[in-house]
Write a structure and sequence with these properties.
With about 200 residues, this protein is α+β, with helices and mostly antiparallel strands. Helix content is about 35%, strand content about 30%. The protein has one domain: Imidazole glycerol phosphate dehydratase, domain 1 (Ribosomal Protein S5, domain 2). Helix 1 packs parallel to helix 4 and helix 2 packs parallel to helix 3.
């Protein structure tokens, strides 16, 4: 099996995003989006997923963070999709509960090739640092579409929005770590119909 990695670049009038992703990595991350708390969350995703991740993003932050957050999610999803290749031999599904002090998050993923997102997320404030909390759901929905992934995420409880968001991205990393692993018992796609996707 070749290296499961991908590099993607996207440039629009609003943003420029370059991402490198290695699925079988060591959990190292170099992330610069211009949005400090988004960088923080993506570091957790890489560390707990054992992915090597490099992200360079420049966007129209003088307008607001929306375009940058959305386009980082688009390109990150595309790199996951490309790095997974034909998805033969992967475990395919994974889930994780992660506590962070008083907060608890749950994430389940299915790398089925059929994009879908079901999110039950609530935050008490409008933003964490420079990241509007409303964009966390948008990031995850966009990631699911472009990674061709079924994603379910739930924040069960917690008082502190920072802890809630951090637990969520740690859980996403750990769920993906399980799902992208190669299962030595399988040589083909992990589906009874013999194919993934619609």
């Amino acid at each position: 099996m070749g290296a499961r990695e991908a590099r993607r670049h996207r440039r629009t009038a609003e943003t420029e995003v370059t991402i490198f992703l290695r699925l079988d990595g060591r959990g190292t991350a170099q992330v610069e989006t211009g949005i400090g708390f988004l960088d923080h969350l993506l570091h957790h995703l890489a560390f707990h997923g054992f992915f090597d991740l490099e992200i360079q993003a420049r966007g129209d932050l003088h307008v607001d963070p929306h375009h940058t957050v959305e386009d980082v999610a688009i390109v990150l999803g595309q790199t996951f999709d490309e790095a997974l290749g034909d998805r033969k031999g992967i475990v395919r599904m994974g889930h994780a509960y992660v506590p962070m002090d008083e907060a608890l998050a749950f994430v389940a993923v299915d790398l089925s090739g059929r994009p879908y997102a079901v999110l039950d997320l609530s935050f008490t404030g409008p933003a964490i640092g420079a990241l509007p909390t409303s964009l966390i759901s948008h990031f995850l929905e966009t990631l699911a579409v472009h990674a061709r992934m079924n994603l379910h995420a739930r924040l069960l409880y917690g008082r502190d929005d920072h802890h809630r968001a951090e637990a969520l991205f740690k859980a996403l990393g750990r769920a993906l770590d399980t799902a992208v692993r190669i299962d030595p018992r399988r040589s083909d796609v992990p589906s009874t119909k013999g194919a993934l996707g619609p």
